[in-house]
């Protein structure tokens, strides 16, 4: 194995070896991917926004809130949602409750969610069909986000993509799949 010097390009296997060799922190370190794509975001065909489901997740516990009505509330709770509701949950969020990482909404709730734009927008929590957070299949959406679905958004200022791949305590094979 060659030495781990900065600035040299590596394949994934060597990169994992170098990360493990240089891990000196007293806590579980995270592995991130930083990629410069040289995209110009002022052109519509060079903007990047997509979602990716990582095979082993990110290693983070994700709290999911679901805005839905009727039978979907029970389905959401059974699927593992931390919070589920309709008007009551909207009022809690409007009151300042932001104890969740992902907000999933059914399409029929989106007109009611619109009034939360000022609270949710700056935090990046506003449900969006392109990110998969506006969905009619509530159970499948919850399962995907709990398993490690991440939204990749190209940074307009840095022209880079930053994504959490997982934790260094994952097995080598698991890290290589990520």
Q: What are the key terms here?
A:
178 residues, 7 strands, alpha/beta
How would you characterize the overall build of this protein?
- The structure is a single chain.
- The chain is α/β, with parallel strands linked by helices.
- The chain is built from seven helices and seven strands, in the order αβββαβαβαααββα.
- The strands form three sheets. Strands 4-3-5 form a three-stranded parallel sheet, with helices on both faces.
- α2 (71-79) runs parallel beside α6 (138-147).
- The two termini are 21 Å apart.
- The relative contact order is 0.23.
- The mean pLDDT is 78.
What class do helices, strands and sheet pairing give? Answer: alpha/beta
Runs with pLDDT <50, length 5+?
none
Q: Which range does the strand content fall in?
A: 15-25%
Global geometry: globular
Strand count, sense and closure of the main sheet? 3 strands, parallel
Helix content: 25-40%
Q: Count every beta strand, where a strand is a DSSP E run of 2 or more residues.
A: 7
Number of helical runs?
7
What is the arithmetic mean of pLDDT?
78
Strand order of the largest sheet: 4-3-5
Whole-Å distance between the termini? 21 Å
Order of helices and strands: HEEEHEHEHHHEEH
Give me the Rg, rounded. Answer: 19 Å
Brief account:
With 178 residues, the chain is an alpha/beta fold.
SSE layout and pairing:
Layout: H1 12-21, E1 30-36, E2 49-53, E3 64-67, H2 71-79, E4 83-85, H3 87-94, E5 102-105, H4 110-113, H5 117-120, H6 138-147, E6 149-153, E7 160-167, H7 172-177
Parallel strand pairs: 3-4, 3-5
Antiparallel strand pairs: 1-7, 2-6
Helix pairs in contact: 2-6
């Amino acid at each position: 194995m060659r030495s781990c010097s900065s600035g040299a390009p590596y394949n994934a296997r060597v990169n994992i070896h170098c990360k493990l060799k240089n891990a000196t922190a007293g806590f579980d370190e995270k592995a991130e991917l930083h990629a410069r794509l040289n995209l110009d975001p002022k052109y519509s065909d060079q903007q990047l926004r997509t979602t990716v489901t990582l095979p082993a997740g990110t290693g983070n516990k994700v709290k999911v809130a679901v805005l839905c009505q009727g039978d979907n509330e029970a389905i959401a709770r059974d699927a593992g949602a931390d919070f589920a509701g309709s008007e009551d949950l909207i009022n809690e969020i409007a009151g300042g409750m932001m104890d969740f990482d992902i907000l999933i909404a059914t399409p029929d709730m989106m007109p009611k969610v619109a009034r939360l734009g000022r609270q949710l927008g700056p935090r990046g929590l506003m449900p969006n069909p392109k990110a998969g957070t506006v969905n009619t299949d509530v159970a499948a959406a919850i399962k995907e986000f709990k398993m490690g679905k991440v939204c990749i958004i190209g940074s307009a200022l840095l022209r880079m993509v930053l994504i959490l791949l997982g934790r260094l305590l994952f097995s080598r094979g698991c890290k290589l799949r990520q």
